[in-house]
Design a protein that fits this description.
Its EC number is 5.1.3.14. InterPro entries: UDP_GlcNAc_Epimerase_2_dom, WecB-like. Keywords: Isomerase. Belongs to the UDP-N-acetylglucosamine 2-epimerase family. This is UDP-N-acetylglucosamine 2-epimerase (non-hydrolyzing). The chain is an alpha/beta fold. The chain has two domains: about 190 residues, Glycogen Phosphorylase B (Rossmann fold); about 160 residues, Rossmann fold (3-Layer(aba) Sandwich). The strands form two sheets. A seven-stranded parallel β-sheet has the order 3-2-1-4-5-6-7, with helices on both faces. It has a six-stranded parallel β-sheet with strand order 10-9-8-11-12-13, with helices on both faces. Helix 2 links the parallel strand 2 and strand 3. Helix 1 crosses helix 7, helix 3 crosses helix 4 and helix 4 packs parallel to helix 5. The longest helix is centred in the N-terminal third of the chain and has 19 residues. The termini are far apart.
């Protein structure tokens, strides 16, 4: 038969990190005609990942605008992707996760009557406002998708409860663990020399990322105040790569700029961030991806949100959701800093998200769906 024409769609750095291993896996197979379309919802940060993984888009909509709104992103991505799909007539459109590009890509494929596969499907908080707009992006994409690549059994159960047919769901693990296999190295030397000068042996380095839309305003103020007080601990070094969005950048620099034991950086390239995480003591973040990545490196994660769509990590003990209040941040950070038993409980817990073969399982699942592979791939099962 003819090769399966697949267009992979993404627009932000987190999507690109998780889709790049899958794009590379399809490129190795004789059964795929693999194309890539990026919206560049985030321009500069996306380009870093494309370069790192040597992914060359076939289409680049370049839609990013200064202070863009969700409606502007949706409309631009929807129109541009629909034109690509009409021209290419793919057999399958692959979208990932929870971004506005994800939803627009699924909707454009639906309007063009093309099958949609959702990578990292089934994550839910069951609160449409948290995270905003990601929770509804996931649910709306899930309603459109024909194939659902759920990273865990919990995600699969969420989909089953929503009426998705079981034969359309494949438990694959998360592709971000595939990406980590290629980026983290013991002998890694940072390109950013500020990071090379950190004494990782004598300092307890806390990696911080906080940028989600739901935390803009007062929550981010509280996070920064908590970090300010935490920076007074003598053996601590806080490293915060700050998102370039003015709603984040301005607040963080106003509160934290110039403080001893605080290093504020521009966003790091993916390999820089992964290797910094590997050398850090623990992670404070509102990112979804870091909740999956850090545990695979043995790093506890304190989540700067009130809810998470990744309850598997909480259950496993690798992640703790602590909210955004200054007092909560201080309390839980100090426990990890000075209570070795509590630290080791989190650091030694089994990562429930993957074994580095998620992309291979997804490729095998697509081949099975299209009748090229006879046997359904085995589901991912975490160790322990």
């Amino acid at each position: 038969m003819d090769r399966i024409k697949v267009i992979s769609v993404f627009g932000t750095r987190p999507e690109a990190i998780k889709m790049a291993p899958l794009v590379k896996e399809m490129e190795k197979s004789e059964f795929f005609d693999s194309r890539v379309a990026v919206t560049a919802q985030h321009r500069e940060m996306l380009d870093q990942v494309l370069s790192l993984f040597d992914v060359k888009p076939d289409y680049d909509l370049d839609i990013m605008k200064h202070r863009q709104t969700l409606s502007e992103i949706t409309c631009s991505a929807l129109k541009g992707l629909e034109e690509i799909f009409i021209k290419e007539k793919p057999d399958l459109v692959l979208v990932h996760g929870d971004t506005t590009t994800t939803f627009a890509g699924a909707l454009a494929a639906f309007y063009s009557q093309i099958k949609v596969a959702h990578v990292e499907a089934g994550l839910r908080t069951h609160n449409k406002w948290l995270p905003f707009p990601e929770e509804m992006n996931r649910k709306l994409t899930g309603a459109i998708a024909d194939l659902h690549f759920a990273p865990t059994k919990t995600a699969k159960e969420n989909l089953l409860r929503e009426g998705v047919r079981e034969e359309r769901i494949y438990v694959t693990g998360n592709t971000v663990i595939d990406a980590l296999k290629t980026t983290v190295r013991e002998d890694y030397v940072f390109r950013n020399d500020v990071l090379n000068k950190i004494d990782f042996k004598r300092k307890k380095v806390i990696l911080v990322t906080a940028h989600r839309r739901e935390n803009w305003g007062e929550p981010l103020e509280q996070i920064c105040l908590g970090l300010k007080r935490l920076s007074a601990e003598k053996d601590v070094c806080i490293v915060y790569p700050v998102h370039l969005n003015p709603a984040v950048w301005d607040t963080v620099h106003r509160v934290l700029q110039g403080l001893e034991n605080v290093i504020l950086l521009e966003p790091l390239d993916t390999d820089e961030l992964h290797n910094l995480m590997a050398k850090s003591f623990f992670v404070l973040t509102d990112s979804g991806g870091l909740q999956e990545e850090a545990p695979s490196l043995g790093k506890p994660v304190l989540v700067l949100r009130n809810e998470t769509e990744r309850p598997e990590a909480v259950k496993a003990g690798t992640v703790k959701v602590i909210g955004t209040s200054c007092e909560s941040i201080l309390k839980h950070a100090r426990i990890l800093l000075y209570d070795q038993n509590e630290y080791m409980k989190m650091a030694g817990a089994v990562n429930p998200y993957g074994d580095g073969f998620a992309s291979k399982r997804i490729v095998e699942s697509i081949l099975y769906h299209f009748g090229i592979r006879r046997e359904r791939p085995e589901e991912f099962e975490p160790e322990g």
